[in-house]
Amino acid sequence: MPHIHQIQAELRASKIDGWLFCDHHHRDPIANRVLGLGENGMATRRWFYFIPSRGEPRKLVHRIEPGTLDSLAGRKQMYTGWEELRRGLGKLLSGSRTVAMQYSPENNIPYIGLVDAGTVELVRKLKKKVVTSADLVQKFEATWTPEQLVSHLEAGKLIDQIRQSAFEHAAAGVHKSQPITEFELQQWILEQFRANRLTTAEPPIAAVQPNSGNPHYEPSSNRSRPIRAGDLLLLDIWAKFDHPGSVYYDITWTGYLGERVPAAYAKIFLIVREARDRAIGYVAESAARGRVMHGWEIDHIAREVIRKAGYAKHFVHRTGHSIGQEVHGNGTNIDGLETRDNRKIIPHTCFSIEPGIYLPEFGIRSEVNVYVGEREARVTGAIQQEILPLLA
What we know:
Blueprint: H1 4-13, E1 18-23, H2 29-35, E2 47-52, E3 58-62, E4 75-79, H3 82-92, E5 98-101, H4 117-125, E6 129-132, H5 134-142, H6 146-175, H7 182-195, E7 198-199, E8 205-208, E9 232-241, E10 249-256, H8 263-289, H9 295-308, E11 322-323, E12 349-353, E13 356-358, E14 363-365, E15 368-372, E16 377-379, E17 388-389
Parallel strand pairs: 1-5, 3-4, 5-6, 10-17
Antiparallel strand pairs: 1-2, 2-3, 7-9, 8-9, 9-10, 11-12, 12-15, 13-14, 15-16
Helix pairs in contact: 6-7, 8-9
């Protein structure tokens, strides 16, 4: 958990009077992570924790669960009934006018919009202006420590090796005339994760032919295609080390089960590669110049390349997402399509750049991770330059 004085300094810089956290049945994982509460304790009754821009934090808990916030600094109030809760909340927020909450206007950033509408109404009824905590969350949830960057880079080395071995494993099945399925390849990758102390909340994607045109295809034991000669194989692999605080590495590569990649596949890959590289170049140049950049702007740069090539309607995915302890983190997303993410890219954060073209017959995506430092930005792993011919 960040020190209270760090949060208060950011509140003052943002001209916000305080940050109100609240939870019920662990509905807000951001609150639990930022405050360092974890998700193991009971939360069957509502609790509130208010960090003012100046002064001591305050907490409001139910008498049935009086110790819920005992690990946090601040004065404690308790309530039993709903009327007492409302009075207590008024005292909790006394002296403040502008209050940040896990709220997103019009739910533009749904990853932040975790507080329910009724609680927002209740706070507004107390004559408080509710503002989004999106930038605060990014500052204290999405920035990496030097140790986390190291864990990302080390995990990336292993995942890059596993990715190459997975392509070779699929090719070996074709060579032996014993093709494995998408699901079998996915399970093989998971075995490599376990052997290397890597973990993932969701399994990787192995997809061939029309399945590769589905950005979130999920192979399963009863719905899976064999990987045969002449197939385009897309691998989307993400994982992190299995110890606390680790952050994800997330990549997508494509290979062809043949000796020479067909022109139709190569053409689409080159368009996707240009979109990826234009976006990377913009981020690197902006970081070096100290220029402010927003998630939607980077998305627009990549999307324009694909639009000008005539495939706009087939780029149905945002250009990238924040990466952290969850593969889809709570920092700025590279998104001007699904949402208009107008948050600034800030130092010590990481995100994917992964443009794609998804056709009915096949899809191609190229995904890299970009880490932004104080005045520099870099891709943290290998960068695919052409579709890999796997039977060459």
